[in-house]
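Case study 2.
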Amino acid sequence: MTKRRRAPRSSPDELRERANALKLYGLVANWDEYAEQPWLPRLLEHEEEERQVRSLARRVRNAKLGRFKELASFDWSWPRRIDRELLEEVFTLGFLEEAANVILVGPNGVGKTTLVKNLAHKALLRGYTAR
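Prediction:
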């Protein structure tokens, strides 16, 4: 199930722009024939949603994250020294906009991989790619 991110644009110029963005060149070439069809806005919306779903599935598959424990079940009391506020800030993904790096350091078994996989998954959901 997908969430609708925004109300669909429906003026003829906006519909044509959406069709162009979707690379529906046959539709655009015959625009005068289809521009006033009542089903056109919904068709474009369905196509946009389906492409978003397929894009997410492809990004998740290509990331090869495998199975991982959700962050909601992460034990914040172990390790004893962990900067939860800083990690929560990292999970806002602001560092991606700043093109900054994030490095997690600690001994084996404290959850670094779990945190990184959750971070990658969140980035995938926001439209980024991950390797």
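The first helix runs from residue 12 to 21.
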